Amino acid sequence: MRFIFCLIILSGLGLAAPAIACGPEVTIQFSESSPDRIHIKFVRGPKLRLTSLRINLSGSAAGAIFDDHGGLEMQGPQPGPSGVAIRSIKYRTQGQETVTLTFDGFDEQRTFDFLSDLDDSGSTGDRDQNHLVEGELTGAAAHATLLSENGRHIQIEGRFDKLGRARLGERACV
After folding, report:
1. What is the pLDDT of residue 6?
2. Which residues, other chains included, contact 35 with Cβ-Cβ below 8 Å and sequence gap of 6+?
3. DSSP string, 34-101
4. In contact, 166 and 156? CB cutoff 8 Å
5. Per-residue pLDDT at 73 exceeds 60
6. Structure pTM?
7. N or C: which end of the chain has fewer CB within 10 A?
8. Minimal CA–CA distance to 53: which of 67, 68, 35, 39?
């Protein structure tokens, strides 16, 4: 009886209920391969569409750069298996640190694999500049633009962790 009473009190205070995730969310996972793969998933955002994604490597621990400008030739002109099509790829050439991707058909729960070549700039003294290892992407930023049905733009952002993952959006809310 005392246990049930404590649960009632705690849930009334909001302490027993876990935080419920809310708001739009996009996740990104970097994988070192040939070519490197950036897996993008639009996890949550009912009635929204992911229209663009900007990845800025300037804050990364290794001073990472995009070492190619293959653009659409590397991606192919057709939509991927989930129906997402890449409309444009724009690299900021000075420093090769930023790429902006624009999409068609990137709805909730869809995924897209962006192929590119990311390398270590050598600014940290790493001898193997052709590959990124765990932790070198830490601190790089990503910014997504979502479009609502009524034409409103929503911005979400996040940073890459030591495992090459970024989570864009609100952390949690009750």
Report:
1. 43
2. 68, 70, 74, 115, 116, 117
3. SSEEEEEEEEE-TTEEEEEEEEE-TTSTT--EE----HHHHH-SS--TTS-EEEEEEEETGGG-EEEE
4. no
5. no
6. 0.79
7. N
8. 39
- Residue 149 is predicted with a pLDDT of 94
* pLDDT above 70 (res 122): no
Q: Domain locations in the chain?
A: 22-169
Kind plus residue range of the DSSP H or E element containing 165: strand 165-169
Q: Which residue has the higher pLDDT, 132 or 162?
A: 162
Contact 112, 82 (CB under 8 A): yes
| Domain 22-169 part of CATH 2.60.40 | yes
Cα–Cα distances in angstroms (integers) from residue 22 to residues 45, 49, 152, 173, 174, in the given order? 9, 16, 18, 6, 8
Cβ atoms 95, 67 nearer than 8 A: no
